[in-house]
């Protein structure tokens, strides 16, 4: 819904929240359901109702538990039956500088202030660890906004007794904890409050009258930022940018003005704004965001513009360049198909409002933010939270190279008449083995991001995946695929739970970037081998349909399983006899970790 995309009208959202929710719930979208416990150090009702809108807009249907006013610590340390039976999928601790229990006094020694800091941090740390041990779910914790006043003036930022410095040091302790603790995320209200304006954000009227730690008008900004973390945790981030060129990556029209006259570089203010925007996009690429071009242009002119000596982005920075005179929605759909992602994983960036409107109308789920002037391009994309990072792996750093290698594979495929010969020509090797600690983060990330080739779409937190890894009740496999074009990284995960001599499959997923490469057969061959080693006689597979996983509806049937049941919702159960299985993959060499 465009009204919920940044930059949004906060007053409109606060006023129309009920009608917006009604519209969202009636749009027929498939959403994952999640329980979110909000433990507040201040009033949270309006925050929860607005956060719900942003989550619904991102494919998550939340049910909320709210602590009583300022009972966050008590609920965390001594949860009642309501919270225990709620079984949250995520816990959000909404505390602010109003909830710091003690600040330094001007007469305190440095040692006394250090002790105060340690006590305050330990109070929070014990709460986080109690929650983590009890609920084994992700925790989101606010950092602290700066104080509204500075008792010592400028010295408040540097003197050990200053409130500003105390809050800064406490935030640093929170960041160190987040840096070393999986499933723990900081909600950066320090940044959001500064961006909004601390004077308005922390207006004492709202605390004194309503026990709100921020002003009403700032609630949508706050809820939006928090919702971005939740959607990222549950794999709802975007994956790619489809970028227009003329007046988007540079000023002017390259076909009309010529390369020498487009605006990019350091010579003028406008040229520098485009230069900085390209630099921002280059940094996003280095984080793993896939860059593509979608421009109405002659390809020759597009390439010439991208090769401008003052430009930051070059043709090699893009996985796919669509520069032609086709409709842009068609080009975006083709781009999604070529890189094996869904169109709703793409953000379309174009200065032309008509083009944005057409793409939104034709491609459901594709975001096309309002790009009003180049000076605001970076802020618009950055604050939209399309690519908010909660987990980050080596595979993210290499994503653009991996997908570019896929394009090279597709080009080579065209030279072969026989598909099996093409697969053999790739010289593929797979490392398939039990989970290892170094890949747990990537395995968890895949479980939350893979939607199409995912038979159960079961999601795992890092803690839950670690519990599976440590349990003897499971057979677990990860798969890594390498070929002559490069390393695709960890691309497949299989988890089955043992029940006597039967293995019940809980998860079978694969990244779409290795579709049609027989990697699923290599995983199956290895799974059967592991089953035989552990005395498993029967494998049962389960398919649970979603809006996005239709491609694997008959996966177990293609493996040779027999369908033994199907209900009215399309959920199916499949079964295979391990002893009668014969190896299926003949184009990939399979290795274990030690090889």
SS-derived structural category: alpha/beta
Largest sheet: 8 strands, mixed
- Tally the helices: what do you get? 24
Which strand order does the major sheet show? 15-16-14-13-12-11-10-17
β-strand percent reads 15-25%
* Overall outline: globular
Q: Tell me the distance between the termini.
A: 50 Å
Number of strands: 17
The helical percent reads 40-55%
Report the average pLDDT across residues: 92
Which stretches are poorly predicted, pLDDT < 50 over at least 5 residues? none
Q: Taking Cα atoms only, what radius of gyration do you get, to the nearest Å?
A: 26 Å
Protein model, in words:
There is one protein chain. The protein is α/β, with parallel strands linked by helices.
């Amino acid at each position: 819904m465009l009204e919920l995309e940044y930059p949004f009208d906060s007053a409109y959202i606060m006023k129309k929240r009920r009608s917006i929710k009604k519209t969202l719930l009636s749009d027929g979208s498939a959403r994952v359901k999640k329980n979110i416990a909000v433990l507040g150090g201040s009033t949270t009702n309006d925050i929860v109702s607005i956060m719900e809108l942003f989550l619904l807009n991102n494919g998550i249907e939340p049910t909320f538990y709210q602590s009583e006013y300022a009972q966050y610590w008590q609920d965390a340390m001594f949860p009642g039956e309501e919270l225990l039976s709620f079984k949250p999928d995520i816990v959000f601790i909404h505390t602010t500088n109003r909830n710091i229990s003690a600040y330094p006094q001007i007469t305190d020694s440095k040692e006394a202030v250090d002790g105060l800091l340690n006590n305050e941090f330990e109070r929070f740390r014990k709460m986080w660890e109690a929650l983590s041990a009890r609920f084994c779910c992700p925790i989101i914790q606010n950092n602290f906004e700066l104080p509204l006043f500075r008792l010592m003036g400028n010295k408040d930022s540097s003197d050990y007794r200053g409130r500003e410095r105390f809050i800064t040091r406490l935030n640093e302790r929170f960041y160190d904890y987040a840096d070393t603790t999986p499933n723990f995320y900081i909600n950066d209200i320090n940044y959001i409050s500064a961006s909004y304006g601390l004077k308005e954000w922390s207006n004492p009227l709202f605390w004194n009258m309503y026990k709100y730690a921020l002003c009403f008008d700032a609630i949508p900004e706050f809820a939006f930022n928090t919702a971005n973390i939740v959607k990222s945790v549950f794999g709802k981030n975007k994956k790619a940018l489809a970028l227009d060129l003329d007046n988007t990556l540079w000023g002017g029209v390259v076909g009309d003005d010529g390369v020498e006259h487009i605006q990019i570089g350091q010579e003028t203010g406008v040229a520098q704004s485009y230069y900085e925007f390209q630099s921002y996009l280059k940094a996003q690429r280095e984080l793993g965001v896939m860059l593509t071009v979608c421009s109405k242009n002659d390809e020759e002119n597009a390439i010439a513009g991208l090769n401008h000596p003052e430009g930051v982005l070059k043709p090699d920075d893009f996985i796919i360049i669509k520069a032609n005179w086709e409709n842009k929605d068609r080009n975006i759909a083709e781009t999604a198909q070529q890189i094996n992602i869904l169109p709703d994983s793409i953000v379309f960036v174009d200065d032309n409002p008509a083009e944005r409107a057409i793409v939104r109308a034709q491609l459901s789920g594709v975001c096309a933010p309002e790009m009003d002037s180049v000076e605001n391009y970076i802020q618009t994309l950055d604050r939209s939270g399309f690519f908010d990072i909660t987990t980050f792996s080596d595979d993210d750093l290499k994503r653009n190279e991996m997908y570019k290698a896929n394009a090279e594979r597709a080009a080579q495929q065209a030279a072969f008449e026989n598909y099996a010969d093409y697969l053999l020509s790739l010289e593929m090797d797979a490392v398939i083995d039990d989970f290892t600690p170094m890949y747990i983060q990537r395995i968890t990330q895949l479980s939350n991001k893979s939607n199409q080739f995912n038979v159960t779409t079961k999601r795992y937190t890092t803690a839950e995946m670690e519990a599976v890894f440590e349990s003897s009740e499971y057979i677990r496999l990860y798969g890594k695929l390498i070929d002559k074009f490069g390393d695709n990284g960890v691309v497949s995960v299989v988890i089955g739970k043992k029940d006597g001599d039967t293995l019940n499959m809980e998860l079978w997923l694969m990244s779409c970037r290795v579709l049609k490469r027989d990697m699923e057969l290599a995983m199956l061959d290895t799974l059967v081998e592991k089953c035989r080693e552990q005395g498993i006689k029967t494998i049962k597979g389960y398919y649970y349909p979603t809006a996005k996983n239709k491609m694997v509806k008959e996966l177990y049937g293609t493996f040779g399983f027999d369908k033994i049941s199907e209900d009215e919702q399309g959920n199916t159960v499949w079964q295979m006899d391990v002893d009668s299985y014969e190896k299926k993959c003949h184009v990939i060499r399979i290795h274990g970790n030690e090889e």
